[in-house]
Each structure stands twice: as structure tokens, then as C-alpha cells.
Amino acid sequence: MFRNLLSRLFADDPAPQPLAAQDAEVAIAALLVRVARADDHYELSERQRIDRVLARRRGLTPDQAAERRAAAEMIEAEAPDTVRFTRLIKDRIALEDRTGVLAAMWEIAYADQRRDMDEESMIRLVAGLLGVTDRDSALIRQKVLSDMGLASD
């Protein structure tokens, strides 16, 4: 089921079609996995946070969220470079969902309660590719840190 997502997502289509909601969520989850793996430490806390984010975004059960994350891990491993991957996703998800995606990315980056420059650099790159300004990204980051009860620096 999700295996076909790779072919749909990376199909050479001059007018890309929006992804179905479930496919879009797995593609977004793959970006979350990529952020979590950016520092070469993909920890249990990050996997659990991805599951919670997926469950919250779409009202999934913990098992459904874990299943989507597992599919996202496979897709992320096979996805092209981050720039191309993000552009493909941007072309297929709604504009209004992009700030929510960025908030989820910041949440994943701080799941282990550590600031990591590799993860932050990845998010900044993806934010620009998604069309989110640096200022908006910083505001989203501050809100996520506040919601998580972490001090903003």
C-alpha cells in the first residue's frame, strides 16, 4: 500500500496531483523521520514523538501511528536528497498544512530535549523549501518549545 506511494510521489509529472490524505501524512512523516535522523541518532524518544504527532494530526490509534511511522522510515530511506524530496512533497500538500508540518518538525527535533545543530539546519532548509519564512519558522519554534515546557534560547 505505502510502497506505491514512492512511485506516486516520485513520478515525473509536469502537473503534480495532490496526494490523498493518508499518503500525504506518510510523506510528511518521512520528513519527520529525516529530521530525527539528521543527527545520526534516531532515538526511541524521537520515534515515540513521531507516533504522537501522527496520532494527534489525524486521530490515529497508537498502533496506526506506529504503522505509518514504519512506512515513513522505509520511504525516507529510499527518498532522494532533502531538497528534491521536500519540493516533491511541497507540490503535493496544501499550503495551509505547511506550518503544521514545520511545527511537527520542531517538536521532533526537541523530542530528546537537546538542541542539535544538524536537526535545526535540516528544519531551516526544509522551511525555506516549503515556503515558510525564517521569521515564521522562528515563531513556530518558540511556540513549540513553550508548548513542550522547554526554555526558548
From TrEMBL:
It comes from the Bacteria. Coiled coil: none annotated. Pfam families: TerB. Residues 26-142 form the Co-chaperone DjlA N-terminal domain. This is TerB family tellurite resistance protein. It comes from Paracoccus maritimus. The lineage of its organism: Bacteria, Pseudomonadati, Pseudomonadota, Alphaproteobacteria, Rhodobacterales.
